[in-house]
Structures are given as C-alpha cells and as structure tokens.
Amino acid sequence: AAGRDSLQRGSSDSEAENEAKGKLLSKKPAWVDEDDEAEENVDMTHRYRKDFMKSDAEKILTKKKLKRRLEEQFQRAMGGVPAWADLENRKKSKTTASDSDSDEDNDLLCRTGNFISNSESLPRGILKMRTCLPANQERFADGKLVTVQFHPSAQVVMTAGHDRSVSLFQVDGIRNPRIQSIYLESFPIYKACFSVDGEQVIATGTHHKMFFVYDMMSGSIIPIQKVRGVEERFLRNFEVSPDGSFMLLTGTSGYLHLLSMKTKELISTMKVNGRCTASAFTPDSSKIYSYSKEGEVFIWDVRSRKCLHKFEDEGSLEGKCIAVSKNNQYVACGSASGVVNLYTTDVCLKENHPKPVKAIMNLVTSATCVTFNPTTEILAVASRETDEAVKLVHIPSYTVFSNFPVFRRKQIYLAQSMDFSPRSGFFSVANNKGKALLFRLKHYSDF
C-alpha cells in the first residue's frame, strides 16, 4: 500500500511538473497591472525632466508622450535606431549572413554578461579568428586613420583620422552600420579617445594647442582653447586614466601635464629626464609609467606626483610605446629597434636594470603600438613603418600566433592603431588607407 501511495504521489508530481513547464513555455505575464494602462500625467518641471520640454506649454505630459520623447532623445544621440533595437533589420541580417558562424555571432551579440571566467585559457599556436567587414565599412576615412577604439560599454567602435572626422559605428560583425560622424574643421586629428563612462570623445590635433571634447549625450562639440598653466606649442599625445579622473598630456622637453578629466584644468606637472615619448596608467590609476626617448621608464605616484622608481629598458636606444596589462601583471616597452620587452610589474618597481621575461623580436622596424587584450592572454605589437607589421603574442607562453597576419593577401598595410573589444570578442586595426579592419576572435564568446 505504501508503495502504491508513493507511485501515485510520484505520478501526480510529474503531472504538476509538466503543467509548470507548459505554463513556462507559454510565457504569459505573471500579472497585469491595471495602473499601467491608465493615462497618467507626469510633471515636466522636475529638474530631471525639464530638459525634455520643448516649450512652456509642456509643463505636464502623459506617460506615453514622455516615453516617445525619451526615445527621440536617445535616437538623436545614437544617430537613429541602433541595430540591436531594430528587430526587422536583425532578422534580415541573420538571413543574409552566409557564414556558418554568423548565427553563433548574432547570438553572442544579443546577450551581455562576463563569460570569461567560464572559458578555458587561450591555446597557443593558432588563433581561431574570422575576418569581418571593416568596422567603418559605411564610411571609410579619406587618408590615414589614426585611432580605432571600442566603446567601454556599448557595442560601438569609434574611428578618427587625418580627414578631420570622428565616426561611430554599431559593431554587429555583418553590416557595422554607421551611427554618426562629426567633422572638425581645419583640425586633422592626431589622437581620439573615449572617456571612461563612454559619454565623451576627446580629440587632439596634429598642429594645435587646443583640443576638442565631443559630448555624445548632448551632441555638442566643446573646444578647449587653452589649459591654464600648460605652455605647449602643440598638444598631441594623451592618456585617460582607467578610473576616469585624469587626463595626462605629453608635453615637450619631458613635461607631463596631469589634468582633471571633469574640469579639463591642470592639477600638476611632472618632468622626466630627456623627452617623453609615451605613457600608460596602471589599471587602478594609482601610477603612471612614462617612457623616455632615451630608453628609461619613470614610475610616478598619481596622488603625490612623485617619482617612485626609474629603470632602464634593456637594450633600448629610443623608447617608442608602452602598455600596462589590465591585470597589472605585465609592462610592455616597444623601442625604435623593433624589440618589444615584456616585464613583470613587480620587477619593474624594484630593479634598476630588470630582465624582461621575453624580448619579442618579430618586428624589424620601430615598434609604434603595443596593446594588451582585456584578459591579458594576448599582446598585440605593431609597427607603422612597414606593411603587415602586426603580431599577436600569446601570454603566458610568449609565442607568436602563426596564422596572423595572413600573408597571402595584403590587407593591414601600415597599422596606425589597434584595440580589443571590452571582452576580447573583436580585434580591430586602423591603417593608413582609412580602414578599420575587424577580426572576430572565436575563443571569446562575448563582445
């Protein structure tokens, strides 16, 4: 009898489970709130909402109208409906994508979240990748493209070049639709960079002492004519601190100017021996590594602006570029000889003549750009002085991936700038032909 009871109970349990599954599959709303349907008025004079008023007559709007107004504002800032919000377009692009991986990629671009912790470590040797259409396919730059950078939080990439324009593109790996472009008259761009919150783009010129701040939320372009206390003929190279507090301008004669990112005013000036060619913040924004033309690296404390330590880059005749990995484990120093020395940060802070864990000898002309991917598994090194001079180095084996670049067909040309997307799903290289080449790194399942 007890056995029969348990059987009956078991069957009733499974029926209940099936019923629950059926309910889940139908995906009906759990409840309907009648208040949602009610036409309710919103006070537009509130300080958070008064910017959305078009006239004084709109002191009160219905919820529907306010929703429409917010959508308009968003579309104006984004230059139309983004690809991820346009369902019709997404369906079309899915059907037109002939690549067998495209469905998987579309699926990847539909979700967010950090999948890195679940993925195994990146294998060495061959890097699984797919060449996509260039990121700026809908608007190639006229001439040299000096910057390519992925947005810190959205699926957007920014390009800037000598043609005086800054452009934003939605990254879908298929069409990469253009969001918007701005044109800075008589201002060939030397470098452009997103602010950490992704709401601004800072752009410096090739021969100007002023720079521009493009506010994407309001759509306004703000010229910063002069920074008080900064006596420089040209302002070109700069870095933005990872915490979004500081902007570091590289001056002449070894001067480094630390600015407040919020007010764009000078906080302090530091000076290295000789001339400074490149700088990089540590991921916690507490220190700055400055590389001098004479091959020395100076480590500064951001808070006190004091030099904590100085070391010589082994065998360097002239410093060119420097990068600190996102996990603060490595420092890469690229020199005019083409050698990129890779150091561990703990050794750099202690020794005056540290030994690199690896000297990367694959470039035969000046190393002009080095950048780590967000997981510190790849170091990209490049030279803008010869065609196809880009190498991807696997960390921690310190070996170069043999299948990149593809030498059968020339496409990279002179690499000017490189960047990885926030979770390494994409890699982009800007070249002197005005293209931002885009590659999908298949090991990483997220953007």
Automatic annotation (TrEMBL):
Gene3D superfamilies: YVTN repeat-like/Quinoprotein amine dehydrogenase. GO terms for biological process: rRNA processing. Residues 1-44 are annotated as: Disordered. It is found in: Nucleus, Nucleolus. InterPro entries: Utp18 (IPR045161), WD40/YVTN_repeat-like_dom_sf (IPR015943), WD40_repeat_dom_sf (IPR036322), WD40_rpt (IPR001680). It comes from the Eukaryota. Signal peptide: none annotated. GO terms for cellular component: Pwp2p-containing subcomplex of 90S preribosome; small-subunit processome. SUPFAM superfamilies: WD40 repeat-like (SSF50978). Residues 32-42 have a biased composition (Acidic residues). WD repeats lie at residues 280-310. Keywords: Nucleus, Phosphoprotein, Repeat, rRNA processing, WD repeat. Part of the small subunit (SSU) processome, first precursor of the small eukaryotic ribosomal subunit. During the assembly of the SSU processome in the nucleolus, many ribosome biogenesis factors, an RNA chaperone and ribosomal proteins associate with the nascent pre-rRNA and work in concert to generate RNA folding, modifications, rearrangements and cleavage as well as targeted degradation of pre-ribosomal RNA by the RNA exosome. Involved in nucleolar processing of pre-18S ribosomal RNA. Belongs to the WD repeat UTP18 family. This is U3 small nucleolar RNA-associated protein 18 homolog.
